[in-house]
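Design review, sub-item: ligand-bound model
Attendees: FS, YL, KQ
YL presented the inputs for the adenosine-5'-triphosphate complex:
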Amino acid sequence: MNKVLDVKSVSKRFGGVQALDDVSIHLNEGEVLALAGDNGAGKSTLIKVVSGVYHPDDGNIIFNNENIQLDNPRFAREKGIETIYQDLALADNLNVGANIFLGREPMTTKFGVPIINREFMLSESKKVLKNLEINIPESSLEEPVGKLSGGQRQAVAIGRALYWNAKLLIMDEPTAALGVPEQRNVMDLIKKLKEQKVSIIFISHNLTDIFQASDRIVVLRRGIKAGERIISETNSDEVVKLMVQG
Ligand SMILES: Nc1ncnc2c1ncn2[C@@H]1O[C@H](COP(=O)(O)OP(=O)(O)OP(=O)(O)O)[C@@H](O)[C@H]1O
Ligand SMILES: [Mg+2]
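KQ shared the predicted structure:
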């Protein structure tokens, strides 16, 4: 199996807090890895190390067989690592197309003057949403995404990642702020991405989601890796034990 990501012995300290202590995880192509653990276990810190937000104190990250130094999120994105953070990173005041192309706006010229190609952004957005069977009415596409529902916003963020050819998509609690039907839609999107061979790491406190959508689970506890299991070979009792024992 093709190994996409290999995080080796990563440590990260914030002042007196050892947020990560010698943690290793790996991910194969098209695999969904769930990251679980109690509040403050180090989950967000771990994915921020992989997405270039934090530089680890120790350890290294191998992505597509290349040892990479991720100094910033833009570099990670260029490599094909897209992250959807816990505090969702959409610009509320911009429409769907402008969000999908945020920071990478296509240009055209009008009367010899360079301008942003809004028509292209709109037509590409429609394609992205159609490809993922995301249900957003056409009339809403030119409205600020702040007017969309939480689930639709999540879907736009996922669509953006896919549009930019994410090889690895990282999601920090993608369903935490959603209603039940929208949670299901996002979980369905994860399955579709997996079919398209995208590798996914998702953080969740919801064991039902984890057991439904992932192939493997890594449990963190106070900065250490408490355990790792193949989903089909474990159960929620065992996972909860890994989270709280110690
Ligand atoms: N930027 C920071 N500065 C200082 N301490 C931090 C910072 N980020 C995280 N920490 C600390 O590191 C530890 C791990 O935090 P992290 O956010 O990774 O936890 P988490 O597993 O994502 O928790 P949650 O489930 O609540 O989101 C916590 O003790 C937290 O207070
Ligand atoms: Mg977190």
